[in-house]
Structure formats: C-alpha cells, structure tokens
Amino acid sequence: MADDKSAKSAQQEGERVPTVIVDDLHIVYRVHGAGSGKGNATAALSRLVKRQGSPNVREVHAVRGVSFIAYRGEAIGLIGSNGSGKSTMLRAIAGLLPPEKGKVYTEGQPSLLGVNAALMNDLTGERNVILGGLAMGMSPEQIRERYQEIVDFSGINDKGDFISLPMRTYSSGMAARLRFSIAAAKSHDVLMIDEALATGDRQFQKRSEERIRELRKEAGTVFLVSHNNKSIRDTCDRVLWLEKGVLVMDGPTDEVIKAYEAESKK
Ligand SMILES: Nc1ncnc2c1ncn2[C@@H]1O[C@H](COP(=O)(O)OP(=O)(O)OP(=O)(O)O)[C@@H](O)[C@H]1O
C-alpha cells in the first residue's frame, strides 16, 4: 500500500516508475523427440547399454540477451519477423517460462491476454465472463457490475443472443473479442496483448485501441505484439524490434517502424 502511494506520488512528480525490468534475458526451449537420432527400439537399447543420453533433445535459443526497462503509462509495441521471439518474451515476462540466464522483475502480476483469462470452451460466454473475471481477481460484485459492459464491448450479442451459447460455437474472432473484453475490464499493472487486435474486425480493432489508450491512462503498462504496423503506430509510443531473439532496436515508434520497414523491403 505504502509502495503504491509512493509510486503514485512519484508519478505525479513526473518521475518515471519502472514496471518491468528485463535484464540480459535468455530463454531456451528444449524439444524432446526431435533431432536426427534413430528412433527405433534397438537404437534406444544400445544407447541404454552404452549409457549415452538421448540424442533427440534439441535446444532452441529463442531469446538472446534482451535487456530493457518499461515504465508506467507506456504502451510498447513488439515487432519482428515470424519466430523472432516476441511471444516467447511476453510469456517469460508473464512468468510462464523460466529464464535460462538473466532476470525479469515486474510490478504486480503481469496479465498475458488469453492465458490469464482461463476460459472454458464448453461453458457459455456468460459463464466465461464470470470465470475470467474471477481468474483475474475481480470480486463477484465487481463482475456483476461490469458484466453488461463486458458483453457490450465484445459485441458478441450484436447479432443475437450468442453469450448464452458455449464458447466452442464461437468463431475465432468472436472468442478473441470476448477474451480481450474480459481482460480489458480490469485495470492491470502490466497488460500484454499478443496479436489480439488482428483477430477482430475493423470496428472492434478501433474499440480495443481506444480501450488500450484508457488502460494506459489508468497508469498501467501495455505490451502489444502485432504484425500490423498501423495498429502499433496507433497505440504505441515506444517499440522494441526483435530479430532471431536479439533486441535490434528500442526507441520511439516512428523511428523503429521506419527502420523495420526499410529492412523488410530489402
Ligand atoms: N513451445 C516451443 N517449443 C520449442 N520451440 C519453440 C516453442 N515456441 C516457440 N519456439 C521457437 O522459439 C522461437 C521464437 O518463437 P516465438 O513464437 O517467440 O516467435 P514470434 O516472434 O512470436 O513469432 P510470430 O511472429 O510468428 O508469432 C522460434 O524459433 C520458435 O520455433
């Protein structure tokens, strides 16, 4: 509580309050059952006899020594080609992947959109709004108060009563909209959105961009992974550009996107 007060007064005084510190972060995936070793029983027995380890574990070094500090009120875009490590980094910030080396420090529990809202496909949209709200730490009263707002924001019921149908009957866009609406109903210290805006239609994208701006005003930090440079331009003031797990550039949106576009045209 005292920390919260001092953080708020620091912000009023114009000081920048760090929310995420990533220090020389390395993430390595270990893939079992890959590799070029022979997969038959004789080869496995021979390895056992010779006491050799399995040759079938491959390592993928997805994030390589990334460091940066994110501050309150910032909306940070993550860009880079496919497989450059953007989602991996968000998962590591959310605490879902252990660092091989380096550290991640965060203020509060960062929410990775779609993961923290533990939604169930067999339950109706309505039950999922309640479940997702509870999973984010909202009280049943808070959920009741905001229920209609969440449903209206998602637009799920615009064309009929879909909120009372199981989520498995939703299109991927509808499910993504509901996930975003649930996650955005609460202010987060650190909210991370992975490609969520790309799934909704244009109208929903506009609404969610507006909501991201509001979330920023509520003093959170927002991370947005997207291949849509326009979405990034419209919502973010700072951009991190990753390539092959390395942070190539970190700076104001316009500068970084210009450099990225110039590189992509090559
Ligand atoms: N579960 C996993 N197991 C093993 N390797 C993985 C796993 N998830 C991702 N990788 C590898 O890590 C690297 C980074 O992947 P990541 O999904 O973070 O990239 P990305 O920048 O988010 O890509 P995209 O833009 O295509 O979504 C890739 O080489 C990928 O093959």
From TrEMBL:
Q: Which UniProt keywords apply?
A: ATP-binding, Nucleotide-binding, Transport
A GO CC term assigned to this protein in UniProt: membrane
**Gene3D superfamilies noted in UniProt:** P-loop containing nucleotide triphosphate hydrolases (3.40.50.300)
Domain (ABC transporter): give its ranges.
43-266
Q: Which residues form a coiled coil?
A: none
Q: Which PROSITE patterns match?
A: ABC_TRANSPORTER_1, ABC_TRANSPORTER_2
GO terms, molecular function: ABC-type transporter activity; ATP binding; ATP hydrolysis activity
Per the UniProt record, one Pfam family is: ABC_tran
Protein family per UniProt: Belongs to the ABC transporter superfamily.
Q: Per its UniProt record, what PANTHER family does this chain match?
A: TEICHOIC ACIDS EXPORT ATP-BINDING PROTEIN TAGH
Name under which the protein is recorded? ABC transporter ATP-binding protein
- Which organism does this sequence originate in? Wenjunlia tyrosinilytica
Q: What is the lineage of its organism?
A: Bacteria, Bacillati, Actinomycetota, Actinomycetes, Kitasatosporales
